[in-house]
Write a structure and sequence with these properties.
By secondary structure, this protein is an alpha+beta fold. It is built from 1 helix and 5 strands; from the N terminus they run E-E-E-E-E-H. The protein has a domain of about 35 residues. It is about 20% helix and about 35% strand.
């Protein structure tokens, strides 16, 4: 955990120095907070002007039914053999994990933040590649 330095008293006062007032924001996870994997997203503008973004993860379909051969039966015990058939969806499943509705202003801020994060990551990747390749 990172330690924040020069903390104020919550009112923007740090004990006497003349600084710009600050506002402390506390991040508290709700009971429904979770981390989801996103393989993609879709969305757009809603009828009332908000922007909606729904994230999905992709996976192969889980079989609804799997039929196995029976190797042997001894009284009430049955030993299953290899699968001989199954009922399942074809293709891939895109499971929509979470939808996020936001104002257009928040969408713009999110766009900028993602762009800034990509620049940082791409810069770190370049530095790491140069280090590994001996180009520094």
């Amino acid at each position: 955990m990172t330690e924040q330095k020069n903390m104020t008293d919550g009112q923007g006062n740090d004990g006497g120095s003349k600084k710009t007032p600050t506002l402390r924001c506390h991040y508290i996870k709700s009971n429904f907070y979770r981390v989801v994997s996103a393989d993609g997203c879709f969305g757009g503008r809603q009828p009332r002007g908000q922007f909606q973004l729904s994230f999905f993860s992709e996976r192969l379909p889980i079989p609804q039914i799997v039929e196995h051969e029976i190797k042997s039966t001894r009284g009430a015990m049955t030993e299953m053999g290899d699968p001989v058939g199954q009922v399942s969806r074809e293709g891939i499943v895109r499971e929509v994990e979470v939808g996020v509705a936001m104002t257009v202003g928040v969408a713009r801020a999110l766009h900028k933040w993602i762009g800034d994060q990509l620049k940082v990551i791409e810069g770190e990747d370049k530095e790491q590649k140069e280090f590994v390749d001996g180009e520094s």
